[in-house]
Amino acid sequence: MIMDRIALVLTIIGGINWGSVGLFRFDLVAWLFGGQTATVSRVIYTLVGLSALWCISLLFRTDALTDDEI
Questions:
Q1: Distance from first CA to last CA of the chain, Å, rounded?
Q2: Is 38 helix (H, G, I), strand (E, B) or coil?
Q3: DSSP, res 65
Q4: Which among 12, 15, 31, 53 would be 20 to 30 A from 23, CA to CA?
C-alpha cells in the first residue's frame, strides 16, 4: 500500500534526524527549514509523528506484503 511506504519513508527520515540530534546535536530539519519553530519544520515534525503512529498499525496487520507487492 502506498500510504504504508510514505509513512515508512517519513519515519525513517525522522529516525535519521533524531540520530543526528543524539550523536551530533545537529537538527537537520531545523537547519534546512529555518529553525525548530519555523512553520515548514513544524509541518515536517508533525508529518513524521503521524507517520510513526501509522507505522504502529503495521505491527498488527495480518496481511503481510508478498513479493508481488514490493
A1: 9
A2: coil
A3: P
A4: 53
Distance of CA 41 to the CA centre of its chain: 13
Residue listed under C-alpha cell 513524521: 48
Q: Specify the amino acid at residue 29.
A: V
C-alpha cell at 37: 519553530
Distance CA 41, CA 33 (A): 6
* Residue 7 DSSP SS3: helix
Q: 11: how many CB neighbours lie within 10 A of its CB?
A: 20
pTM over cut 0.70 = yes
CA distance 15 to 21: 10
pLDDT in tens, 29-56: 999 999 999 999 999 999 999 999 999 9
How far, in Å, are 2, 14, 28, 31, 47 from residue 20 at the CA level? 27, 10, 7, 12, 18
